[in-house]
Write a structure and sequence with these properties.
Elements: H1 8-24, H2 29-47, H3 49-67, H4 73-90, H5 95-122, H6 125-138, H7 147-178, H8 200-219, H9 223-238, H10 245-267, H11 273-312, H12 319-325, H13 335-349, H14 353-370
Length: 372
Amino acid sequence: MLRVSGGVQGLAHVATISFLAGRLTPVGAFWVSLGGGVALARAGARAGARAGYGASIAAMVETVAVMGPARISGPLTQALNAPALGALHARGHGAVVLLAVCTSIRLAHYAVINALLLWLVLGSIDAYVETFDSVAELALGILPSGQTAALTLTLVANLAAAAFYSVVQVVVVRRALSTPVAAPPVASILAARDDPAPSPRRVRALAWGTVAVWILLLTALAWPVLAAVAGLLAVGTVAVRAPRWPPLRLTVLLGTALALGALGPAALGAVEVDEALRRGVRAFLLVASAGVTQALIGPEGVRALAAGALRVLRRVPAVSEASLLAPELRGEPRLIAGTRELIARVTEAAPRPSRLADAVIGWVGDEEARHR
């Protein structure tokens, strides 16, 4: 039976519930996911950055197992920076250091997302600049035009967003870590499995098939390839069991949003319609293929794949801790009740920032206490 010192296991449970709630709620996702950030910061403060990131990886694995890839970006930012903030705070570093680290990690995350969107949706930086110039023309001269203006304003927007969210996160994390909370005793929480384990051979076949589909989509942007992949996904979708439809619907919505984003430049005349259509369809198929695979193999299949990946990467710091924590997060019985309670508290406290911070910190403390 798994035992993790310093209450890291319970905090991993809290982070999992918060991240799932953040991916489910249509508004206020940052504040809802911030509860998971507070929990992981406490894990980093109590047991060190390595254990905190182990809890972070385990929580993200479980959220993907339950929901698939939809809306993962928001919680991922908290998972990337919160354990480091907690460990630095425990070592006596002040707000300036925490803010610098938090902002740097958030900016790196934004850079990766922007690069992926530029590559997959628009295709090139020239297409992005042409799209920006088209928007600038519609703004009747209010916005400057040209590559320098496009890149500069994009950088400024990313810096402003990173600064705002980082300041809020650091303030809330420091406030949470300064609030006296008794560390729970070493404990182990048994949770019922929520899905029968699929055939390992079937899981591996679907996983490798999905990887092959991704490689094909990324290397051959042609209508026959897109049509063939769409046909395969249609067949796979028919085979999805009814209880697994809700997460798949969210994934389809995400893919649809990316596809429409690819069509925007064509509507403005920045790129050719045919290329925009092909890129939009490809973006949809990339996201949808991950969702269909998750729906076909189920949460237990995703957990099995993650467990295999963690075993391969076990020498990487924090991965061994994650491999121990992840199995204990399966089928969390407080999942639905916890997400509803967190969303309700944040909704009730909005829009005042101080009340929102108190609501998030209070929920984390209450939820952690339930896991003792």
